[in-house]
Amino acid sequence: MPVPETPEEVRRWFLAQVQRLWPVAGGSLSLRKSPCIRPRCAACATGEQHASYVLYGHRAGRRFARYVPDELARELEQALANGRTLQALILDAGERYLRARKAQRRP
Ligand SMILES: [Zn+2]
Q: By C-alpha distance, which of 29, 101, 98 is closest to 70?
């Protein structure tokens, strides 16, 4: 049987992984259509309106929405992907930590 990891080894593995996950973000990115404030705007008059990216999320049960400039949308997508990877990493870390702590309890 292989030598079990120590909690310290799990910590170092986790921190090394986390370092690569920057930028990080939670929530979701979507394209929202809304009218503008310009008078006699052709796009608004036809009902086409204006598309812009919005970051949606929940914090303590409250929804938030933040405008995202077009040129930052790709970057934010990457940050959200990193956020999902981080969640999966936390699950793995918890299991590995528990296994390492159990191994320490054995006489
Ligand atoms: Zn408009």
A: 29
